[in-house]
């Protein structure tokens, strides 16, 4: 057979030929069937061709000229982008480099380069099983030096076996950094004390009483519980304080955060407790936060309780950690529920018949976010939201006056007849009632309202046409317009214009001789009651929509407030900003 092989015109791989000769020599040692099978395999043209290809690829791979300079170029690109984004507003070259490097073709080219440089094309073979005596148990001894830093691990009693096992390893904590302790490892001894039959509390006491080095004797888990850091970022829509949460398994392991904080979720494998760290605290140890499911459950529970029914008293309600009422989520101040008084006399551009309590019906927990990078020549609409009379229009007017070529507001639509001196398309776009009714019904207006029997509104199309013309669209709609405006198509940058404290509010408006927007003739000053209403309305807006705002801006001294607005607009043009991940495609 070998002679036949060598005689053929195929270029046989020398290693294969040698294997076949060796096989021939040992032909008598094994049973015929196995030898025949091996022979057939080694002599197949397909295997020979594969081996030849492999040899050639391996030869090319050894050529130093083709060695990659680095295998993490995509990572470097992101770091460079991050650096450049902070300097774009200072230097045009930076800006140009920033936009060039954002090109998705370039980024994918680097991904492909890195995959090849890291030899990501090799097949991932399963680990060869190591034969072990079934009764033999591997034990590892882990020594950690006790410091002020928590160990960053939690333990629990395994329900089936009653053994103490490692329940959770906090990302970036001491245990995680050691790389020696894993989720599922069974704890046998702590400092030579056998923990069999002990409770997690007993083990904690042993740990607390020990000094210096702590020695764990562990039986490793089958699966090392290796946790890969997820890349998910979320914006929190509620405040969380583990110190007052009765259900967190370990308060010290909790991570406190505030509504609006961007959190990096590093592990989501537990149904109730996620691990997270704050985005700007990258090197910090991860902490426990309630999962979306747990938080939703708490909010629902709280609402049900408010309505007089105890959700958890129903048979079959699952997690034991919710058998007693969980911590209350944020609630509106009772005084503010009817405080959002609307201007009674002036034209209104929104539908007052809608009950804004509806907005909080949605369960606000976490929203997945990603960085939205600025695109040259495409500006996100700037939307100024605030209590009636707080100064949204004043700020909008100033921004447009600063650069009318760049900043523009859409011309509103109306169904009222044109007055003398008005020009169609300048003050208003005049349309028939039926047409506007139908367009409102079709969701074509980002805001609309009725005043003295006529409709007024701003169409989504007019916002888009300003954006498409390469200008910055500036809007100052009623706060309910957030619902229609906040879409992936429009990608608005939402700014909450808030009133300052009452005495500053009064002083600044009095000094500027500001005219009340609640007065149809716009002739008198604001009353004390109107100032108080302004503050209550701002609280209400914050409660309803606070989690949607990109920026809060206090309109005390007008010059300062305007300066802040300009800075934010510049930042938006030059820096990436967190936005709903759905918008970043
Ligand atoms: N920071 C400020 N200091 C002094 N006066 C201000 C300030 N901001 C706004 N004003 C004045 O307050 C009055 C109301 O402002 P503006 O018309 O901008 O309110 P608005 O938020 O648009 O109200 P509305 O929604 O009722 O139209 C105006 O006379 C404006 O010049």
TrEMBL record:
Pfam families: Guanylate_kin (PF00625), L27 (PF02828), PDZ (PF00595), SH3_2 (PF07653). PANTHER family: MEMBRANE-ASSOCIATED GUANYLATE KINASE MAGUK. Belongs to the MAGUK family. Residues 229-299 form the SH3 domain. It is found in: Cell junction; Membrane. Residues 303-342 are annotated as: Disordered. Its main location: other. Gene3D superfamilies: 2.30.42.10, L27 domain, P-loop containing nucleotide triphosphate hydrolases, SH3 Domains. GO terms for cellular component: anchoring junction; membrane; subsynaptic reticulum. Residues 12-65, 66-124 form the L27 domain. Residues 379-570 form the Guanylate kinase-like domain. This is Menage a trois, isoform C. One of its GO terms (biological process) is regulation of synaptic assembly at neuromuscular junction. Keywords: Cell junction, Membrane, Repeat, SH3 domain. Residues 141-222 form the PDZ domain. Residues 303-313 have a biased composition (Basic and acidic residues). It comes from Drosophila melanogaster (Fruit fly).
